[in-house]
Amino acid sequence: MDPAGGCPHADNARLLARGAVAQVVLPGEVAGMAVLGHDALKEFLAHPDVAKDAEHFTALREGRIPDGWPLKTFATVRGMTTADGADHRRLRALVSKAFTAHRAAELRPRVETVTEQLLDGLGAAAVAGDGTADLRRHFAMPLPMGVICELLGVDPRYQDRLHHLSNQVVATDIGPEEAMAANKELVDVLAVVVATRTADPGPDLTSALVAAREEDGDRLSGPELIGTLLLMVIAGHETTLNLITNAVRALCTHRDQLALVREARASWADVVEETLRWDSPVSYFPFRYPTKDLTLDGTLIPKGTPVLAGYSAAGRDRAAHGPDADRFDLTRASAAQHLSLGHGPHYCLGAPLARLEATIALERLFTRFPELDLAVPEAELPRHAGFVGNSVGELPVRPVP
Question: What family does the Swiss-Prot or TrEMBL record give for this protein (predicted)?
């Protein structure tokens, strides 16, 4: 795996041509595997002999993974994404009420208000500059980051720093000292949030989690509380940030598909689902571990191997989406069958909120700026660093009314 990342689709196509499961070399020469095919990934994500707890990660358990390994947080953070069975159900139950479809619908007015405010800012940034503005910086990032911070009761002054640290934590191309420093600072910031909400509780999720810990310490330990917040901050904005960015980029370079929406022959919800399939906001997500030797699509995955979930590859798997799987098509019948938000017991808890945010964002963006287009050729857009997230690092646009 290239730690610097880059567009994954050409490499994915080459790997898929050889099979649904591939051997990979992770940073630090750590042996791993990736599941790329749609059907194989769907089976793997829900397989009873596949775990998330790093106690099953053989190389880590044997002391062969050093501190500062850029992917170590994914394995060792305490929270829903690294828990199995009863522990996973316990942690998920504590936060699930904040992320139901009903709760997401209740947030619609707030999401709409924030979206309009950010569109004002996007237009102003373009006017203040040369007629262009970075949509990722001025719109796609602050929308989900602002919403998740409101849900968690995080002071707005922490938002930019939390975004930076989140990027560092999921990066695969930074050194050990930088990785350890980013993890420590992120934990320190979240500890301040917990202390603030403990002293001054509010109607936010952090206060509710603190109360749950104090009522029954066995339900949520201190590390689990911090780990849960860390995971929600990262997953609660990075995925939606990439989703909005990728959708805007797709529509600007596929004007015929944008026309389908404007002619009511496709919906903004169709845009969201096809973007999730065609250009998944997460490319390779770490980690799951077979608890026994596992044969998947004819390939052996040895017990204890760290396995990447290849969402960007599965989204363009021709076996699942047809011979034109690499084409952005809002009328595609199989789009909603994508796995980009997961499958099985670890299906993305924030899926309803991510869909709501992205749908509102796209509709309002192209309504306010109907001639919006890229300010530079797509091939010149800098790619997001690392192979976990899948997007571009900047999205300069001309927000033309």
Answer: Belongs to the cytochrome P450 family.
| pLDDT higher than threshold 70 for residue 218 | no
Q: What is the pLDDT of residues 157-179, one digit of tens each?
A: 888 888 888 888 777 787 888 88
Residue of 372, 305, 257, 281 whose CA lies nearest to 31: 305
Residue entry with tokens 């102003």: 124
For residue 81 the two structure tokens come to 């994404």
DSSP state letter for 102 = H
CA distances to 18, 229, 278 from 333, rounded to whole Å, are 26, 36, 13
pLDDT at 143: 95
Q: Dig out the tokens for 206 from the structure.
A: 């952090």
Task: Report the candidate in 356, 371, 316 with the shortest Cα–Cα distance to residue 340.
Answer: 316
Whole-angstrom distance, CA of residue 178 vs CA of residue 170: 12
pLDDT higher at 231 or 272: 272
Structure tokens that stand for 46 in this block: 């829900």
In which region does residue 67 sit, left (phi positive, over 0), alpha (psi from -120 to 50) or beta (all else)? beta
For 177-333, list the strands marked E by DSSP: 284-290, 294-296, 299-301, 307-310
**How far is CA 91 from each of CA 52, 79, 227, 263, rounded to the nearest angstrom?**
14, 7, 11, 44
What are the extents of the domains in the chain? 9-398
Mean pLDDT of 7-27: 95
pLDDT above 90 for 97: no
Higher pLDDT, 330 or 4: 330
CA–CA gap between residue 37 and residue 317 (Å, rounded)? 6
**How many whole angstroms separate alpha carbon 267 and alpha carbon 226?**
38
Spatial CA neighbour of 285 closest among 338, 244, 239: 239
